[in-house]
Amino acid sequence: MTLRFLTVRFIAVILTGWCAAAQAEITIVIDKSGKGGVPIAVVPFEWRGSGAPPHQVADIIESNLSRSGRFDAIPREDFLNTPHERSQVKFTDWKLLKAEGLVVGRVVQTGNDFQVEFELFEVFTGKSMVGLRYNVRANQMRKIAHQISDVIYEALTGQPGAFDTRIAYVTVETNSVGSRTFYLEVSDSDGFGSRKILKSTEPIMSPAWSPDGSQLAYVSFEERRSKIYLQRLSDGQRTKLAEYGGLNSAPAWSPDGRRLAMALSHEGNPEIYVLDVASRQLTRLTRDRGIDTEPAWSPDGQHIVFTSGRSGRPQIYRMASNGGNPQRITFQGNYNARASYAPDGERLTLITNQGGGFHTAVYFINSRSLQVLTKTLVDESPTFAPNGAMILYATKSRGRGVLAAMSADGRVRQILKVQQGDVREPAWSPLNRKL
Amino acid sequence: MQKVKLSILMILMIGVTLAGCKSKAVEEGVAVDEQSIGDGSGGAGSVGLGGDEGALGQALPGDIDPLSQRVIYFEYDSTAIDADSQAIVEAHAAYLNNNYQINVVLEGHADERGTREYNLALGEGRSKAVSTMMQALGIGPERIQTISYGEERPSALGSDEASWSLNRRVEILYSN
Questions:
Q1: What does the pLDDT look like over A120-130, one tens digit per residue?
Q2: For chain A, domain boundaries
Q3: In this structure, how many other beta carbons lie within 10 angstroms of the beta carbon of residue A239?
């Protein structure tokens, strides 16, 4: 098989109007690891340049693949040699290590730019599965490492990767006299490269990505009560979307990006409404005496699931997205809330209490079965990766709010924490458009 | 960028101003309250339950005044106001009935358990339960503002029942 290197000219995504780069990076701690993934060897990339390379591309790739739960990285100390291109690879060595996939590559400095190339081999056959070359600037290298991770993930699993995506979350800093500052932040999917995009002395909640990834809707208390805002990521421009009397909460984008479902209480107790973004026309969908909140659209836009207290305790209900009679769909446990769909439309991730605390769970809609994935007690805000392979959620570790990234089967888990303060309310972006 | 900074500054300033107003108003409110209770005027008559407590516990006079308590606590996932708390609400309603120039803000809160958006709704349910009771006691709805902060502004930071029970609350705040 002849190898063809494809040259991809990388175009910078310019994010102006953002607040300064974050002072506090997120640190990652492996909380739970498990064998059972595809064994893969990621060889440290060769570096041809002056000084140290801007980023260790192979480290980022290996960390991503491991985090997904689909791969087990073979320890580097076991490697018999460190090839950087096809001519240097002895497949028998990698067969000995039981590697099924092998990734090699190099980073070459060319003036101010860098050429990053990699190749993925199937060890058993010795065939090249994919090889690509990119020309990038130093500040694009992390993004390219995520893109390479996506290419490898898709080549080996047949499903799209979701490493080259972003997450939004809220951080809270408490100063020495106890007053708190809230930030809305956006980072790479692994928590690196964070940017603060909003600062407030009042709470910020419920960030939600528009389906094209260009905007966030969220709830801010900056005017002393909950109102829903839209913020464009490119230039930071903000629009106030909902400031009805009472609660303005839980914004959720329709898959076509034209409407947002939300929970409002200006006509009594919290009910589910749909607001058309362009016309600002508001349609009420629910009508009952219990709390209705936390709407989420099915990927095909046909249904909305939401949390309702109409039966006495919070449970998940589903209705047509244009209204109609809601059907209760969760019956196991005395508290099921904040459901959101996987991209396959067949699974929901939600928070459940079966009597022992508030855990992250996956509900299989067709089989009506609930799989509890965690043992932590105060989990919140679970969100599927846009490829459905991982779940990000908020929990507490030693009294501090942290994020946890978990394979969708709960087998592999990492904790993401900020250096000081709490982090909460994660939301995973849609898949990035391919370059 | 400039705009963002400016609005942040404004938020900060508004926050500081409001915080200042709030605590001042509350302090003044409580100070005046004690006098109005002492007057034994009509509305304050419903503070009879305070006498009950005194008989039971023989507490110091300052401690039995329900008007000195401006926080109503709730059970888990509940918006029900228990008998002790009803006495507190009645005392505040009486005070408001005697002080027409003063309005009230009812700030609902929840503990950290469960989801944030549901807790925001729960906090609203609690503030509205107090509002409904105050309205039944003769306070015009135009004088009552309800706000929910859900679990976003805990008063105790622990993850235990002692902290949770302090966080499931409605704070009664006076404004002019």
A1: 999 999 999 99
A2: 35-157, 166-428
A3: 12
